[in-house]
Amino acid sequence: MSGRETERRIRFTLGDALRLGYEYIIRRKNRAIINIAAIALGIAFLSTLLMTDALYRAYALAGGDRLGVETYQYWLMFVALIVSVVGITNAMLIAVYERYREIGTMKCIGAMDRHILLLFLVESFIQGVVGGAAGYIIGLGAAILSTGFGIGFDVILFVPVTDSLGLLASSMVLSTILSVGATLYPAFRAAKLHPVEALSYEL
Amino acid sequence: MSFDTIIEMEDLARHYEMGGVTIKALDGVDIEIGRGEYVSIVGPSGSGKTTLFNMVGGLDRPTRGRVYIDGVDISKLDAYELAWLRCRKIGYIFQTFNLIPVLTAVENVALPTVFAGVPRNEGLKKAEKILTSVGLGERLHHRPLELSAGQQQRVAMARAMANDPAIILADEPTGNLDLNTGMEIIDLLHGLNKTQGMTLVAATHDLKMIKASDRIVWMRDGKIEKIERG
Hints:
The structure holds 2 protein chains of 2 kinds.
Chain A: H1 3-9, H2 14-27, H3 29-61, H4 71-98, H5 100-108, H6 113-151, H7 161-192, H8 195-199
Helix pairs in contact in A: 2-6, 3-4, 3-6, 3-7, 4-7, 6-7
Chain B: E1 5-18, E2 21-34, E3 38-42, H1 49-56, E4 64-69, E5 72-73, H2 79-89, E6 90-93, H3 105-115, H4 120-133, H5 149-161, E7 167-171, H6 179-196, E8 199-203, H7 207-212, E9 215-220, E10 223-229
Helix pairs in contact in B: 3-4, 3-5, 5-6
């Protein structure tokens, strides 16, 4: 049993983690939906503000009045993002407690600490991507509605395509970073669990 | 140590500190278990059965003494080697089954093969074969909660066998089952031991399991009280 030999034999690839993480999300929908909603709301707030600002600028360029987003609204957005990070950390910590026995069992059948870590991070990665896309769509709709009622629905003609695509990309990157970042601590706790402790845990 | 010894415990002890008091869950256990042997560990609760099980399974580290598996001192293994041991060499069966609830029966059984690096299709095919051999060929795609307790324990048995381990460790495998389903599990385990030569170490209260075994180790207060031939 040399180290190199065993290294070849214990394996848990990113593909395995993705498949298992996907099963966890699909078959435990409720918890995933809460996490996705938390991140989507924060991102929706962000994309509403940025999109509204882009629309105002496009409107001004087209000869309309120069309108702007208030500074305090950016502060609200910042707070909303922090709240979603805290919410996700909390939900993932509960998920770790719920899965104590499963984590212990996984360690009995060959999972190493890093595999458990990977599994939780992959799950939050998927939730971040979905939440980012959902939040962007909600935000885009909200921005069009709010500016539409203010300066008329002709505004749709001014939707800046490159800006909105850029915003989609940055929404998804930001939501993924926030979601994975919020899960780091819970995932690390799960990975470090001692198998005997995890197996004897009663919820 | 003779050639066909697979598990050897040497002055094995595990002490816990609890509220300033030292609890001696295991206190100097010496025993050798032969390859292909069926050993029952018997004793009142708190006698150290589960602690012994955890030590042999490489799930916990001893306070004193050694566990050798195939002549290798498992306290000397690094994280990789320990994971390999748990994955390939030992199959665990628990009183509470401990299946992964989001996975189907066949996915549960195939999970150890994922860690063993077996290609996915091959692992699933093997899982199907083992499940069929324990009589669950019709229940492959059911999830644990859709199965009866006896069926769940058979899935857990199939999972324990997935990587053809040399040793099966069973902690009260019939503890949560009624008489008949318990009997089925005992027959299956006994069959595995006899036909495939798997070494079986089972902590149990169940008289029927005890009767089927080659040797019975009676424990009390973290020590071996007596060893009987079955």
